[in-house]
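Milestone M4 deliverable, item 7.
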Amino acid sequence: MRNIAIIAHVDHGKTTLVDQMLIQTGTFAEHEQRPDRALDSNDQERERGITIMAKCASVQWKDTRINIIDTPGHADFGGEVERILSMVDSALLLIDAAEGPMPQTRFVLSKALGLGLKPIVVLNKVDRTGADPEAALNAVFDLFSDLGANEEQLDFPFLYAAGRDGWASLEPTMKGTDLTPLFETIVKHTPPPKALEALDQPFSMLISMLDADPYVGRVLTGRVESGTVAVGDMVHAISRDGDIIEKARLSKLFIMTGMERVPAQTAKAGDIVAIAGLSNANVADTLADVAVGTPIHATPVDPPTMSVTVSINDSPLSGRDGKKVQSRLIRERLYHEARSNVAIEVSDAPDRDAFVLAGRGELQLGVLIETLRREDFELSVSRPQVLSRLDDEGKRLEPIEEVTCDVGADHAGAVIESLTARRADLTSMTPAGAGHTRLIFEAPSRALIGYSGRFLTETRGEGVLNRVFSHWGAWRGQIESRGRGALISMVAGKTSAFALMNLEPRGTLFIGPGEDVYPGMIIGEATRGGDLNVNPVKGKKLSNVRASGKDDAVTLVPPKRLNLEQAIAWIADDEQVEVTPNVVRVRKSERDPIKRKQNQKLKD
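Output delivered:
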């Protein structure tokens, strides 16, 4: 048996390589359709092209069973990586042979090295135009050294591969025929589970994953650390503090075969299993024989760095799309998510009937809110706020991220000017080949909220931006906010093409004709700094007098439709995003423009 995780930066070919491993070990029968990105089963994973949730699979290579865990590549979902690495004995580190190590590569590798794992390096996409496997390999070695790898970890095995075509090779100049060299390297360099040495001890297991099955209820997944377990055994769950959470008899036991959970009667130390029958145990708790009273040490997960406030949708258009609009239902769903996702924290807002949802970044929060939206919830979401902390001397600290930008040489100046104005420090500027430049910054997380759209504009859509949490640094002071104001509807009704045509010179519209609006709803972005109250429902006056231009056709520029992530990043502190199953709207927190003017006068 071998237990191994696959870790990589986003889009370095991780899930595609797992597809080929499943195919070449006979997981799919000849008559079965071979799926693309088999482990990306979540709808959002397929739409976004990223892995969000870690998933298990198992393949049989000759006489060795290899349990494979596919982990997310984006740092926002790093909580998945941190808890999963405790289940494995080694890791495959995938590196794009053209791009080399990227920020998320550094993040997941540091976690693996910190647990004492000795990764196997796979230089993937060696057949890609512009690939330079030797330069990428040297960069990987430097990265290992920078992260404090020991002598044994620095002497890592490495292979060359093209995961899409399903081959691996030990030589850079020799194209392989299949993945046999990869499987042989895994078996040779991955140690058998150390837990096998504890077969004669009482059963214990650390819960690493939690999900629900419509037939058997809550399913807890983890690696058996000691002893054996069988269906019908009496066990108890122990919290990280040593408290007994519950006692129960195991009703179901599953092991992985291919991508499927297969019922089993027994499991032994070293096996990765899924267990049903407990209703209160959670991630990072210990399942053990009733004779065991000490929990297994769980690696602490990095704390959240960003939060949003989630509340009910109280707009005049609320309740038209969603079925779940009550605060009670929203609260139950958010706390349920926090129980299964260790990187999410939920708390009740102190000043009103709302909830503070904290996570690793905009993407993680956006994915969760999109999930709620698809479950027929209606929500109001505030602008993301960066979480700060105080050091031992009482000074304010904020999260600092390492930002890597691959841009055309002609656009480097605009990106540098834009990020330095947001309190970022340029730490490295190197040529990246093919007329591109790689810029590395240390920037406050606050500076990056809503910056991705501006970055694409500055690089004409050709730049690539990657970011990862680096450290907690000193508070860097005020950062410029959105430079333009909002176009705010001051009336209710349906928009008219005539009114929108007259408003187009005032800014960029977010809506089209025939759509419902209400006072305080933001319908576009103004061309200037201040907010502007407008009437988007005004119709053309009817008369029997003909005039030049009166019968001209109304032509409108297609509106700029904001998706959920764009809307959350665009709004200001006094604005909210209204999220329903079918519509994403933006509004002022105070919908009445007259009341808002009065309040502004009082503030002035």
